[in-house]
Specification:
GO terms for molecular function: DNA binding. InterPro entries: HTH_HxlR (IPR002577), WH-like_DNA-bd_sf (IPR036388), WH_DNA-bd_sf (IPR036390). The protein is an alpha+beta fold and about 100 residues long. The protein has a single domain, classed as Orthogonal Bundle (Arc Repressor Mutant, subunit A), CATH 1.10.10. Helices cover about 60% and strands about 15% of the residues. It contains five helices and three strands, in the order αβααββαα. A three-stranded antiparallel sheet has the order 1-3-2. The longest helix has 27 residues. The protein is elongated. The two termini are about 35 Å apart.
């Protein structure tokens, strides 16, 4: 989801707080861990403005932008099969927990 939000903003940067607003339900910690991982993988570039408090900006790198097509395929698959997944979850959850 974070990559999708950054892709929508490309080629511009997005500040951390704005990313958090655009990704519903994500905690500050989870977003921070995700962005750190994406930066380490070379998919996201991070820029810090030396202000108080620091302003941190993110954008997709060329490598990150190259994911757009692959993620669109996964998104289409998920949308097509969402009802099947929901049904499987309901069947699973209805079974007694035998541990």
């Amino acid at each position: 989801m974070t990559v999708k939000v950054l892709a929508e903003a490309a080629p511009y940067e997005v500040r951390f707080a704005e990313l958090q607003r655009r990704v519903p339900g994500v905690s500050q910690k989870m977003l921070s861990v995700t962005l750190r991982s994406l930066t380490r993988d070379g998919l996201v570039a991070r820029r810090v403005e030396p202000t108080v408090p620091p302003r941190v900006h993110y954008r997709l790198t060329e490598l990150g932008l190259s994911l757009e097509t692959a993620l669109a395929v996964v998104r289409a698959w998920a949308e097509e099969h969402m009802l099947d997944i929901d049904r499987a979850n309901e069947l699973h959850d209805a079974q007694p927990d035998v541990t």
